[in-house]
Amino acid sequence: MIIVINGSQWGDEGKGKVVDLLADRFDIVARYQGGHNAGHSVYVGDKAFVLRLLPSGIIHEDTVCVLGNGMVIDPKAFFEEVDQMIAQGISINPGRLKVSSRAHLIMPYHRALDHTSEERLGNEKIGTTLRGIGPAYEDKAGRRGIRVSDALSPEVLRNRIERNLEDANRIIVTYGQPPLYADEIFEEISALAERMKPFVCETSHFYAEAKKQNKKILLEGAQATLLDVDHGTYPFVTSSNATAGGASVGSGIPPHHITGVLGIVRTYATRVGEGPFPTEMLEDEQETADLIRKRGNEFGSVTGRPRRCGWFDAVATRYAAELNGYDSIALTKIDVLDALDEIKVCVGYVVNGERVDTFPAVSSDLRQIQPVYESLEGWKEDTLGITEIDELPAKAKEYVEFLSKEIGVEIGLISTGPERDQTIIVKGSVMSSWFSGQ
Ligand code: GDP
Fold this sequence. Notes:
20 strands
């Protein structure tokens, strides 16, 4: 069984909790794209874990975790996170953590370039997390990148650094920042690469062997569908393929070996950074936005930035369901809406006076969108911690059914709070069969 799990919107849908819940039912939990900007928060008892680079499965001692070839890895951030996990009592060793030899490294000059690229874009800035992820992917596509395996060969590493730094410094200096030095970078990275060596693995072969042994594999997307470089709200996107198709390329698992895809959908929408957000709550709905932000703790777990809040967008989620081929949906944060009198759902878009039923490709069109809302009555009852669907207030159940109908996919899991056991698994759903390991 190989399942892909990803966020359906702009991230922060609560994927961390769902992956954590599934992790001990899988032998391997892996990531296939992105870098250390992911930022899942997972709460286990009174412990809080913030995972940026490592898959959430790392918290489960029997799970093997993999960082796939589609990722970009900052070796310094990697060991900071590994050391943090060890300090929190998690055992980490090469037996249970594998890094693809083909993953690309984020170099110190990528971080410096990230700062200049936002400056270069001026008003069109993307709102990146400035960790060098975008520039590392640019080098990968430009065939200048340094892969993990390259860093293990001192000669190759030194040559690549020298060659790349010449160009990078030209830009860095133009933007008034101090130049970087090849010797310093070489020393820092070669020492980190040496420390990383025991974790390095031919991961696609590892997966092929795992498949032969019928191991269960969970492939965890970072960021989310609408941030996918091909299918998202370009140019306000991440630099990799967060959609389910990316799972195959980014891990080296043949597409037809993937058993199913689970989408994480939240009962409302948020977005961090810049970019179009059709259902954003504007000035007249600030009170509702503040209430949701507070109840849902909608502040970036890495950056602490307040997230922009908005109503559930069924058009965008339908688009995500089609793109990823969702077999089931995990709906999170229903409890956050308990306090609302009225809940709106965007069921269609009007662009330039015309109704459109599909998600526009052009980001300026997305800015013009007038959302068409349907309004549902709130349930105004506590749903926190409910574990059976029949115990949900009738109006909450209606809301769930309404969303499922609008998206066209079953809702197989409903999250009623941040803790693992605050979860409803819908009996008879596709999701429940994965959950029970069938
Ligand atoms: P992720 O990157 O998609 O995992 O999103 P975050 O790490 O930003 O997680 C969202 C936050 O919501 C975390 O603080 C979770 O503990 C919390 N969370 C997840 N599911 C629920 C839920 O059903 N209800 C509530 N109230 N909080 C939740």
